[in-house]
Structure formats: structure tokens, C-alpha cells
Amino acid sequence: MAAAALLAGWSSDRLIRAGHSPSRVRKSYATAGLLLCGAAMFPAPMVDSASHSLALITLACGAISLFSANVWAITQTLAGPPAAGRWTGFQNFIGNLGGVAAPLITGRIVSETGSFLFAFWTAAAILIMGVAAYAVLLKNIEPVSWQTT
Description:
Elements: H1 2-17, H2 22-41, H3 50-79, H4 84-113, H5 117-137
Helix pairs in contact: 1-2, 1-3, 2-3, 2-5, 3-4, 4-5
């Protein structure tokens, strides 16, 4: 994941320096990472061997690096210098809530169904909702105009 995140950050910055739209590049990497992660996670509990499942989970981890390498740049760009610390702190807080909730939800799903199938499918569905949020709700990635009163 570390190598994939480094490569994703480097390549997205390079595209932007080459003249590509920062909004398009950042959103493309973020949505592609979420989509590919979800696509790899969905079949992971249904394949015929543990090694195939592990390969899909590894692919999912690598794919989410496309997202993670760019999501912080998106936040810092939107917030700008006046609020980058607050925004990234809030984003990190919300992300950590997901980290707390995920094992609880997974445990509940597994205890109710006796299988990890629906837990993986739930995670994949949440990733796809993230794709929709970034693709539809986030228009242009440019600093918010802060007005002080």
C-alpha cells in the first residue's frame, strides 16, 4: 500500500504539472481507487481458494492507495491555508470513526449470518457510495472562498 500510494501521489502530481486539470486528476484517482477497491473486495469471499481471496484483498489495498494519496490533497486544496488543519483533522476524525465502527459492524454481520460474505459486500457497497459522493457531490477542487465578518 505504501508503494502504491507513493506511485499514485507521484503520478497524479505529474499529470497536474503537465497541465491536466487538478480537479479531474484528483477526482479520477479518488473515484478509481474506491471503485477498484470495491470491485476487488466484492468477489473476495466467493473465490475458490484462500490464495485467490488474498490476491483480491491485496489488490483492494493497492487500489485504495489511489484514493488515499489524493484525498488529503483534495481536502487541503479545498480548505486552503486558513482551514487546512481543521479540515484534515475533522476528516481524520471521521475516518477513525469508520475504523472503530467497521469491526463492530463486521462482527455483527458475521454473528448473524455465520459468514463473511455480507460483510465484504457491505464494505464494497460503502466504497461504491463513496464513488458516487466524490463523482457527484464534489464539483471543482479549488480553494473555498473564506469571508471573514
